[in-house]
Amino acid sequence: xxxxxxxxxxxxxxxxxxxxxxxxxxxxxxxxxxxxxxxxxxxxxxxxxxxxxxxxxxxxxxxxxxxxxxxxxxxxxxxxxxxxxxxxxxxxxxxxxxxxxxxxxxxxxxxxxxxxxxxxxxxxxxxxxxxxxxxxxxxxxxxxxxxxxxxxxxxxxxxxxxxxxxxxxxxxxxxxxxxxxxxxxxxxxxxxxxxxxxxxxxxxxxxxxxxxxxxxxxxxxxxxxxxxxxxxxxxxxxxxxxxxxxxxxxxxxxxxxxxxxxxxxxxxxxxxxxxxxxxxxxxxxxxxxxxxxxxxxxxxxxxxxxxxxxxxxxxxxxxxxxxxxxxxxxxxx
Length: 333
Description:
Layout: E1 5-7, E2 14-16, E3 20-21, H1 34-47, E4 51-53, H2 62-70, E5 79-84, E6 86-89, E7 92-96, H3 100-114, E8 119-124, H4 133-145, E9 149-155, H5 159-168, E10 171-177, H6 189-196, E11 199-203, H7 235-244, H8 246-255, H9 259-274, H10 287-295, H11 303-312, H12 325-328
Parallel strand pairs: 3-4, 4-5, 5-8, 8-9, 9-10, 10-11
Antiparallel strand pairs: 1-2, 6-7
């Protein structure tokens, strides 16, 4: 089992067909386990899953440091994506900051933590309404010219800002939440990505675990777990969403695979359907789940199965917003 490669956008970036989201190794989903996380990164490289996603805010800082340690002697085997865009004060997120001078500071600090001389894909983590997008794209363009960054990306950006950025420095990839569970990109953003030749990197492709099948109510997760505050895991929303996700489980059972693998296979099939490059980055800190996720690349869904999944999880059948109000306010739409 070894993953193939996938073009990501029209600027020349090529990555593994499935990536590895590293955030959960350091925060959001229970207790950290550095030894298992590093073993998972090393196993990912063995399997050809070499597109690794991190950010300065994960931890903050400790996730990039973890990658730096894990990749010692292996840097040239992977594609590293990281992100800027937050102001961090006393170890906590304290608003947005995409001023060009701050971008430079963050990139230098990230390079140091990652123990590398270049970032393969640098995303603006969230759009900063106080800084013109042209200034952001221009600053990243300068870093590309200097060799510190190879490709430019945006995360959770809306159409207007995608176009404004792309006009100044080509955008290779948009990272946004997209899955069977969250289809908000389909009406407008995906057609714009096709038009501009920008790839899509869906995060939370398993609905933060909901589509993996073995889910609990919000209150049954430990303190500090992101899902305790996820509206879709709470109250009546939970019951309605379990029912909506039943089709994923049924198709998985019929094929003898895991529900999460069906969710990833659906995403991989959507790329050709839409005419864009799609590279999901399921997150995990355990080798077992990594191997399951990578194996999804070998699963083929026929037209009937794809249609059944599409219809089972239309936006009107998923109950509750994907974020709480405060977190949703940072999404540029």
